[in-house]
Amino acid sequence: MADMPLVEVKNLKKYFTKEKGLFAKPQYIKAVDDVSFSIAKGETLGLVGESGCGKSTTGRTIIRLYEPTAGQIIFEGTDIAKLPEKKLMPYRRDMQMIFQDPYASLDSRMTVADIIGEAFDIHKLGSAAEKAEVVATLLDRVGLKREHASRYPHEFSGGQRQRIGIARALAVRPKFIICDEPISALDVSIQAQAVNMLEDLQKELGLTYLFIAHDLSMVKHISNRIGVMYLGKLVELAPSGELYAQPLHPYTQALLSAIPVPDPAKAEEKQRIMLEGEVPSPLNPPSGCRFCTRCQYRMPRCQEEEPQLREVAPGHFAACHLLDR
Ligand SMILES: Nc1ncnc2c1ncn2[C@@H]1O[C@H](COP(=O)(O)OP(=O)(O)O)[C@@H](O)[C@H]1O
Ligand code: SF4
Ligand SMILES: [Mg+2]
Q1: How far is the CA of 237 from the centre of ligand 1 (A)?
Q2: Is 16 in the pocket of ligand 1 (CB under 6 A)?
Q3: Which terminus of the chain is less hemmed in, N or C, by CB atoms within 10 Å?
Q4: β-strand 27-40 against 5-18: which pairing, if any?
């Protein structure tokens, strides 16, 4: 792993505007609210948190599918957060995304060859014959058959469709791939297969991943480090093993305690921390610590002062007043 990060996100914000009728003041959905992290070349950073906490928005904003509200997105040393579309083109090729829903993310009117080759055309990467060769090679690589090229998405299972989505992402030889819950919609029996394939491809092609998942059980093995998000904020970031062995933020502790343990004897030993209440709305997040409405350790200070993400042990960051010394 080289020292210079491939991707560095600094104070990234993405607010969506919620229109409230003609004369009312617009309200902001603070989907991503001041998030910073970096990903080294060849690294996989896991990003977890409950549904709605801003994981997909973070990913989509980094690759400029959404316009950032504020902050920097530094890709190989260049801040691409405000680059105009024309200058963004080469970066669009470097950064690809694998989507959660293999049903919705593939155009049902296009053949597999057209789907996989589309970005190849957009970026003018070669002749029709070269494209056909790339498609065939990619189909081999993701475990599909070459004759599948002329078929349509509805002819495939969920797992096969996800392979088509992966082949599509790889067609332009990207450096960075955002895997947005790529296995959540797949049958449990094939999830491990899909993760193994993504790991093999990463090694073979030197890829860097941001791997998004809604719970911690799916990201442990693939991630070098893991970030935990809550209501638009990064609340903890640590090397994968350390996050599991020593979670410091009460929210991470609760997420970890929710992972089912296969061994019944151990399951009894394990204390489940129940998260009280619902996730508050990002339209009107709690003041102070955003987790304070559900935290069993909350103190008066938590409602008044927002805890900052800081390094509490080497490489281990957390945002909680309990960790102040
Ligand atoms: N295009 C959009 N317009 C308005 N609100 C959005 C949009 N996309 C996401 N949101 C809101 O932003 C918040 C974060 O959503 P998202 O990033 O999809 O969360 P996650 O991927 O963690 O489930 C949610 O409250 C969601 O409703
Ligand atoms: S800052 Fe307070 S409310 Fe927030 S996680 Fe820590 S103890 Fe809980
Ligand atoms: Mg999502």
Answers
A1: 21
A2: yes
A3: C
A4: antiparallel
Give the pLDDT confidence of 170-213 residue by residue, as tens digits.
Answer: 999 999 999 999 988 888 888 888 899 999 999 999 999 999 99
Q: What are the tokens at 316?
A: 């281990």
Q: How far is CA 323 from CA 16, 82, 248, in A?
A: 32, 36, 8
Residue 63 included in any domain? no
Give dist(CA 10, CA 71) in Å, integer: 6
Q: Which domain range does residue 295 map to?
A: 248-325
Residue 290 lies in a domain: yes
Q: Which atom of ligand 1 is nearest to the CA of 66?
A: 1
- Encode pLDDT of 75-84 as tens digits: 999 999 999 9
Q: What's the pLDDT tens digit per position in 257-273?
A: 877 666 666 666 666 67
* Residues 218 and 191 sit within 8 Å (Cβ to Cβ): yes
Strand order in 70-75's β-sheet? 27-40, 5-18, 70-75, 78-79
Please check whether residue 206 lies inside any domain of the structure: no
Closest CA relative to residue 46, chosen from 305, 169, 228, 194: 228
**How many residues are listed for the chain in this entry?**
325
Position 160 in a domain: no
